[in-house]
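Because discrete structure vocabularies remain unfamiliar, it helps to consider an illustrative case, giving the amino acid sequence and backbone structure tokens:
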Amino acid sequence: MAKVSTAGALLAEYPVLFENYPQGLKAGSDGAMWITQEYPNNVICMTTSGIVSYVPLTTVNADGNDLAFGPDGKIWVAELQAGAIGRMSAIGGQGKNIVLRRGVSGGGNIATFTDGTPSAVASDFTAIIDWGDGTLSPGNISGVTGGPFNVSGNHRYLRSGLYKLEVYLNDRVDNSTYASSSGEARVF
């Protein structure tokens, strides 16, 4: 992707993975650019500062063709192959890997996630971290309007080992919960 002035001068270039068929292009109220992508079934967001994130569509083989911003602040996507219109919200997150010492409280950023709503704020969400040892705790959510958002937390493991980390995100606006991909905690 590139940022071009109204006079046609190239201002900046940003690396974006366009595997196949980028489709609709729209600017959000925050200035971020949103693009539908037929394959691999994504919507791409590029913020005004050049941060690029990929939000997967939840309908299998949706073939996102175009998008629009509704009065509810959500992104509505024309899903050509599905014969439907999808509404994007908190889609999910990417779990992180951390290294901790047994018996010492630690953690940090456990997951990062994107939301399909340009006006989304951290206070729209709550998070629960599953530390993989039978312990659940609330996560702290931070990020700028529109995201991406980080979920952080601290935990003290009593035993050494490798633990699967999962974060559950609840979107209070839609009253829906989404799971991040798994990360891991290596405790020595």
User: Anything to note?
Assistant: Residues 19 and 103 are 45 Å apart (CA to CA).
